[in-house]
Prior knowledge:
single chain; alpha/beta; two-stranded antiparallel ribbon; 17 helices; 11% strand
Amino acid sequence: MSGSSPFKMRLVHLDLKGAPPKVSYLAEIFPLFRALGANGLLIEYEDMFPYEGHLRLLRAQHAYSPSEIKEILHLATLNELEVVPLVQTFGHMEFVLKHEALAHLREVAFFPNTLNPHEAESLALVRAMVDQVMELHPGTRWLHVGCDEVYYLGEGEASRQWLQQEQNTKATLCLCHVKAVASHVLARHPATTPLVWDDMLRDIPEDQLSASGVPQLVEPMLWDYTADLDVHSKALLMEKYRKSGFQRLWAASAFKGATGVSQALTPIEHHLRNQVQWLQVAACGPADSLQGIVLTGWQRYDHFSVLCELLPVGIPSLAVCLQSLLQGGFAEDVKTRVENFLGIPSLEITGFSSEGAASFPGSDILALVTQVGLHLRGSVDEMLHTDRYVTGWFSPYHRRRKFIHPVMIQHIQPQALSLLARWSALAAELEAALCRVFYPDAVEEWLEENVQPSLRQLQQLLQDLDEAAGHWPPLPSPGPDTGQDP
Length: 486
C-alpha cells in the first residue's frame, strides 16, 4: 500500500497531553488511519500513562489503565499500526516538574520546563519513566525520548558553574544527557532504538556530533511544520546528520496543532503544503534516506496552554496529508479518494467549511465545532456591537445605569432570547457529542474556552435588560457613572 511514497513508515501522532480520546473512539478511528495509509502510531502519553509506585503522582485524573494501554496496543495490531511510545526525558517536562515533590529537579527553579541534567536523581527519574513505559510496550522497535525545546538549558545554578569550566558548552551538556538516556534504553532494551526530536542538534557542529557518540545511539526526527519549509536547507541538514554518523533519519510534518495555540479549526491547505514540501525534501536525498515520517497532531503547545484543534476536527486534514504522502501529491483523483474515505460530498481545502455532512467517526463534532468556530462569536458580536437598537439605546452607558426606553426592550429582548436559545441548543448537542469521545475535563475545558464566553455575554445582556426594565420609570437624570462594567 506504499504507492509512490518515499516514506516507508507513516506514523500518526497522538498527543495525549490534551483532550485524550477514550479508547472506544480509538477503536473507531484506527481502521480509518490504516485505510488512509498510516502504518504506525507515535503515542505521546504524557500524564495519560498509568505510572505506578513513586511515579503515580504523574497520572492525570482520567489516565488510561494498564488494561486500556493493552487494549490500545491490541487495536493498533488489529489495524496493522506499529506503536512507537514517546516519553519526554529532558524538555517539556512540565507534567513531571510541576509537582512539588519533583520541583527540586528543575534546571531553573521557577520553571518546570526542563530537567536538571546534573542531578543523579534526574536520570534515575527518567530511567524509571522509560522502564515503566517499556514494560507495557514489550518488543517495540522504537522508543521516542523527546529531547526537544530544552528551554533554559544552561541557566540553572549547577549548569552555570559547570559551564565556567573550559571546554564545557551547552551543546556538550545536551549531548551528554541524550547519550545517558539513550544508553539506558539500549542497555535495558537492546532491540529498541531511541528516537529524538532534532531541534537541539541542528546547530551543533558536525565534528562535535560525531565525536559525542550520540549518532551511534539514536535516530533524529527532523521536524518542520511550516507551509513554506526550506527544502534546500533541510536537505543540507540531512547531509550534515549523515556525515555526523546518524545511520537513519526521520521526518516530522503536522496535520493539525501547528498554526495557532488556540486554533479551533484546521487549515487544511497549510498542512497539505507542508507535506508537499517534505516530499520534495525526500526527493533530494538518496532513496530511503528517510526511515519514515510522523504526521504530528499537537493538542496543546505545552502542558499549560489551551487546547488547539480536537482530533475529530483534524481528521479531514489528516486524510489529505496521509493520502498526499502515499500518492506523492494531491491531484484531483486523490481528492476524490479522500472524499470517499470521509463520506464528504465536497471537501474544502482552502477554507473551513465543506459541503454536506461527513460520515467518519467524530464527524458530528467537526460539523458542530465548525458552526461554533465560524459563527458563534460573530453572531453575538454583531448583536452587541452593530445592532442599532443595542448600540443606540442600550449601550454600556445605559447598561451601567440600568436605563432604557421601554419600547427598545421589545426590539432587543426577543432577538437576544432567540440567539441564546439557538446557540444553547447547539452547545448541548456539541457537549453530548464531545462526551462520547472525550473525558469530562476535556469537554468542560473546550466549552469553557470556546462557547461559554459568548453565551455569558448574551445572558448578561438579558439580565441587564430585566434590571433596566425593573427600574422604570427612570429617575429624572441617569445619574453619575459608577465606573462599573456590565
